[in-house]
Design goal:
The protein is mainly α. The protein is about 75% helix and about 0% strand.
Length: about 270
């Protein structure tokens, strides 16, 4: 019985070996430049699926070639244009990890930022992707301030900051409507302290005026309104804040000991 089993096993191994040899004999690598150019042609034609297949084949067959390195970035772009943003981030991060000194590394960082930016949700939802987009675009500016991607990265930073400020305002108004004024003030305070270059800083100062008056903290309300008027004298929010204080017989006036006068830098 042992001899029979051994014979069967040897026959099986021999069969596998023969089959494997035949497969190796029939397998032929495509030239690296051919795979790259075919992938690039597909990508330019908008056939991203076929482009990704060619770039993947290039990565498998010629992983250490310059063509494979360049294809890795183009593959990330192909995923990005296909709406596969997580895959684009993964591929671009792989590239910057493996080839941090490559000429295309700035573009890889930019693809990461763009992929996160495309996933920014409505202001009523969680803003993790907005935070990631902000961090990625700041990384582009930090590492490549003079690159061709820096200008758009700065624009995207402005947009993400505005989005994050809008989220804080949405939560602040929610608390204020429920007369939870301390919680509301904390949200508006965060906007004034961290997002004062956004369009939401005007409303935040007005909402602080409202909330502090509702809490009976008149000097802080006066300070918020005074700084609002000083920085945005033509603002409708200032007109409303001025009228609101007037109903209580007071006017906008800066209290130099107020946290608002310390943190608000615009003038």
């Amino acid at each position: 019985m042992r001899i029979v089993v051994t014979g069967i096993l040897l026959g099986f191994v021999a069969g596998c070996s023969s089959s494997g040899t035949e497969e190796l004999a029939t397998f032929q690598e495509d030239p690296a430049d051919q795979l790259f150019n075919e992938g690039l042609t597909y990508l330019n034609a908008g056939k991203t699926k076929k482009a990704k297949e060619k770039f993947a084949a290039l990565d498998r067959q010629h992983p250490y070639s310059e063509y494979a390195r360049r294809a890795m970035v183009l593959s990330a772009y192909a995923h990005y244009t296909s709406g596969e943003h997580d895959d684009a981030v993964q591929q671009a991060k792989r590239f910057v990890t493996l080839y941090p000194g490559h000429d295309d590394v700035a573009y890889a960082y930019y693809i990461i930022g763009q992929s996160y930016f495309k996933q920014i949700p409505d202001v009523t939802r969680d803003q993790k992707q907005t935070q990631r987009a902000l961090g990625a675009m700041r990384e582009v500016i930090r590492r490549f301030p003079d690159s061709e991607y820096a200008g758009d990265a700065r624009l995207k930073i402005t947009i993400t900051l505005d989005q994050l400020a809008g989220k804080e305002m949405q939560i602040g108004r929610y608390y204020q409507e429920r007369k939870e004024y301390i919680a509301a003030v904390n949200r508006y305070k965060y906007v004034v302290s961290n997002y004062q270059t956004t369009r939401h800083s005007e409303e935040a100062l007005y909402r602080l005026t409202e909330s502090y008056l509702s809490m009976g903290i008149v000097t802080e309300a006066q300070t918020a309104a005074a700084i609002l008027g000083h920085n945005f004298p033509e603002s409708e929010w200032y007109a409303q804040a001025y009228g609101l204080l007037g109903k209580g017989g007071v006017k906008p006036e800066v209290n130099k000991g107020s946290w608002i006068s310390r943190v608000f830098k615009r003038s």
